[in-house]
Q: What sequence folds into this?
C-alpha cells in the first residue's frame, strides 16, 4: 500500500494546520538529563547537634574574667565579647583561618580530650608590643615569621591565664583541669581532629585600646558528648544560691543530731547459771586493769580511746585518740 502523500494532500494538510482545522498532538519532549548528587547521611547526622545552653553561660563567664585578667597582664584596658556558638566541620573551620595564626592545644583531664585556643596573630604581636614596645600600641605588621623563644614564652604565660580562667568559668557546670600542651602556626599541623568531625566554635572579639583582634575556642564535639547532661540546661545564680543555702542548712542539722556516747570500762563473760547465782557484795573481775585505756562507743561504734579520771568531782574520760572507722 502506497503511504506517500501527494503534493496536493501535503498542501491541504499544511493549510488545515495553519487555519486550525486539523488538530495535532503535542510532541513529547525528550526527558531532561537527571543530575544525581551523592547524599552523605553520616554528615547530616554529625551536623545535627543539640544546642548546649550551658556553653553560653561558660563563655560569658570566661570572657568577663579573661577581660580583667588580660587587663592586668598587658596593663591596658582590654574589652572582650563573644559571638554565638557555631557547630561546624573542623575542615570548614580550618579554611576560615588566615595564615599565620597561633593555635594552642590545651589538654583536659576530666573531659578526656583537648580543645584548641586560636589567637589572631595581630593579637599576639599587639600583646608583645605592650610588654616589650615603646608603650603605645600600633597596628602590628604581620609578616608570617615564626615566633621567637621570648615571644613563645609570653604566649605560654598568656595561655596560663586562659587555662586558669577557663577552669573557673567551667566550675559551676563541670569541673575541668586544663594544661597547655603546645603551639602551632599552621593549622595543617594539628591532625588529632578528623576533617569531617564537628566542633563547637566560639569566637571572641578583643579590643586593646584601638586595636581590634579576635580569639577562638574550638572544642571537638566528641569530648562534650559524655557531659551533655550537664550542658543542656543553664545553671542560674538562683539555683547556685539555693544549693548553697540547702547545703548550709543540711550541715547545721547534721551537727545538731544527738549521738549516744558510752565509755566501756571493761567486759566480763559468764554463764547464765553464774549470773543467776550472783549475790550482793560479790566482786566481778573484768578483762582490764585500772590503768588500761578506756574505749568510748559512739552509736554502738568504737570510735574513741581515752583514760579514766575525774573532772570537777565527776567521773570523766580524757580523750587520748580516735580509732579509724575501718578498725571498728
A:
Amino acid at each position: 500500500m502506497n503511504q506517500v502523500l501527494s503534493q496536493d494532500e501535503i498542501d491541504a494538510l499544511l493549510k488545515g494546520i495553519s487555519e486550525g482545522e486539523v488538530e495535532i498532538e503535542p510532541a513529547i519532549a525528550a526527558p531532561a538529563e537527571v543530575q544525581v548528587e551523592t547524599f552523605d547521611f553520616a554528615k547530616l547526622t554529625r551536623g545535627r547537634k543539640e544546642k548546649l545552653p550551658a556553653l553560653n553561660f561558660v563563655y560569658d563567664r570566661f570572657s568577663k574574667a579573661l577581660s580583667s585578667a588580660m587587663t592586668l597582664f598587658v596593663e591596658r584596658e582590654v574589652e572582650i565579647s563573644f559571638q554565638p556558638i557555631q557547630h561546624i566541620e573542623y575542615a570548614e573551620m580550618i579554611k576560615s583561618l588566615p595564615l599565620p595564626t597561633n593555635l594552642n592545644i590545651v589538654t583536659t583531664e576530666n573531659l578526656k580530650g583537648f580543645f584548641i585556643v586560636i589567637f589572631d596573630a595581630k593579637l599576639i604581636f599587639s600583646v608583645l608590643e605592650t610588654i616589650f614596645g615603646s608603650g603605645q600600641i600600633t597596628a602590628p605588621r604581620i609578616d608570617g615569621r615564626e615566633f621567637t623563644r621570648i615571644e613563645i614564652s609570653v604566649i605560654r604565660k598568656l595561655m596560663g591565664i586562659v587555662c586558669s580562667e577557663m577552669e573557673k568559668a567551667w566550675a559551676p557546670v563541670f569541673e575541668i583541669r586544663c594544661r597547655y600542651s603546645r603551639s602551632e602556626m599552621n593549622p595543617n599541623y594539628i591532625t588529632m581532629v578528623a576533617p569531617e568531625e564537628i566542633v563547637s566554635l566560639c569566637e571572641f572579639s578583643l579590643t586593646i585600646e584601638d586595636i581590634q583582634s579576635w580569639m577562638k575556642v574550638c572544642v571537638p564535639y566528641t569530648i562534650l558528648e559524655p557531659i551533655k547532661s550537664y550542658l543542656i540546661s543553664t545553671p542560674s545564680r538562683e539555683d547556685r544560691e539555693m544549693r548553697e543555702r540547702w547545703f548550709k542548712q543540711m550541715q547545721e542539722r547534721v551537727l545538731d543530731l544527738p549521738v549516744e556516747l558510752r565509755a566501756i570500762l571493761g567486759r566480763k563473760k559468764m554463764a547464765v547459771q553464774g549470773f543467776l547465782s550472783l549475790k550482793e557484795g560479790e566482786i566481778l573481775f573484768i578483762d582490764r586493769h585500772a590503768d588500761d585505756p578506756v574505749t568510748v562507743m559512739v552509736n554502738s561504734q568504737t570510735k574513741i580511746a581515752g583514760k579514766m579520771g575525774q573532772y570537777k568531782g565527776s567521773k570523766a574520760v580524757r580523750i587520748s585518740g580516735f580509732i579509724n572507722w575501718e578498725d571498728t
Q: What stands out?
A: Residues 60 and 82 are 7 Å apart (CA to CA).
